[in-house]
Amino acid sequence: YPTWKRTLMRQAREAQMKRFCKAQAIQRRLEEIEVTFRELEQQGIKLEKLLRDEDGTPADQKTQWMNQLLYLVQKKNSLMSEESDLMITVQELKLEEQQWQLDQKLRCYMNREESLKTPEDRAAEQEILVQLLEVVNKRNVLIHIQEEKRLSEL
């Protein structure tokens, strides 16, 4: 291989490893969020029981429990938002990988001499281009969703 091809292949492997590491980190964080959800759920159940069995409990104690319960709900909502962001990122990584694979296939067809291409090669090249456009459009939709979410949070 010429030097430029080796460089491109190395860069592609590095990008693939970055995507893989990012996917692993996301998976770990999703598992942490799941554990935190369970903990919050247990705390919420305890607080609800305390609020239901409030016979003779001072009003300020009830208020404190309600505030704690509201805090748990707020924390759970923020974790759900983070989980949603992570799921979008996972989809984005999948589409990025798919785009890279399609790009590699397309390069193989485009590197062939035009006179040596069969009609099947040309049709396959067109099909890959269509798939590549679909992937790019899907990534664009994900970015648009993220932007809308960010703006709504502001």
Query: Helix and strand succession?
Result: HHH
- Mean of residue pLDDT values: 91
**Largest beta-sheet characterization:** none
Q: Work out the number of β strands.
A: 0
Question: Uncertain runs with pLDDT below 50, 5 residues or more?
Answer: none
Shape: elongated
End-to-end gap: 51 Å
Q: What is the CA-based Rg, rounded?
A: 25 Å
Q: What structural category characterises the helix and strand content?
A: mainly alpha
**Which band does the percent of strand residues land in?**
under 5%
DSSP summary: helix tally = 3
Task: Describe the protein's topology.
Blueprint: H1 3-52, H2 59-111, H3 119-153
Helix pairs in contact: 1-2, 2-3
Question: Can you give keywords for this protein?
Answer:
coiled coil; F-actin_Monoox_Mical; 90% helix; 3 helices; elongated; mainly alpha; 154 residues; membrane; [F-actin]-monooxygenase MICAL1; bMERB_dom
Fold and architecture overview:
- By secondary structure, this protein is mostly helical.
- It contains 3 helices and no strands.
- α1 runs antiparallel to α2 and α2 packs antiparallel against α3.
- The radius of gyration is 25 Å and the shape is elongated.
- The mean pLDDT is 91.
Task: Write a short abstract of this structure.
This is [F-actin]-monooxygenase MICAL1. With 154 residues, the chain is mainly α.
